[in-house]
Amino acid sequence: MDLSEWIDAYAAAWREKDDVAVLELFTPEAAYHSSPTQPPHLGHGQIADYWKRATDTQSDLTLVFGVPITQGPRSVVEWWATLRDPQWQPEAANDWVTLPGSLILRRDDQGRCEQLWEYYNPVFGQKIDAPPGWGA
């Protein structure tokens, strides 16, 4: 699986809230760092549990990815998402979340992810489109 296919499959798994499909993208012992300051989700079991929790209350997802950058086995790609999630920040003015972020990943020879670092900056209560030139 090449990187473009991996990103497309990751996006589809997010849109469909599919914890089974997302696991096909990761090695069985993969580390998924959803926060740089928290312990990673290790292995398929923890990754599936995280994916279910993270996507369960999301709706109306609009998601685009930028052009990835790769050096050796490591790649980085930006994303820009807008979604509704009434549970994430219930005190926000409304349930819209704008979620620009990036993934840093290391993949094995078969294209499956061995390690993923996720960074994002949520803006609660607003639906903001990506600025011109974003992701290029």
Automatic annotation (TrEMBL):
Q: Which residues form a coiled coil?
A: none
SUPFAM superfamilies under this entry?
A: NTF2-like
Ranges for domain SnoaL-like come to: 8-112
InterPro entries annotated for this entry?
A: NTF2-like_dom_sf, SnoaL-like
Q: Which Pfam families match?
A: SnoaL_2
Transmembrane portions of the chain: none
Name of the protein described by the UniProt record:
Nuclear transport factor 2 family protein
Source organism (scientific name)? Kineosporia babensis
Lineage of source species = Bacteria, Bacillati, Actinomycetota, Actinomycetes, Kineosporiales
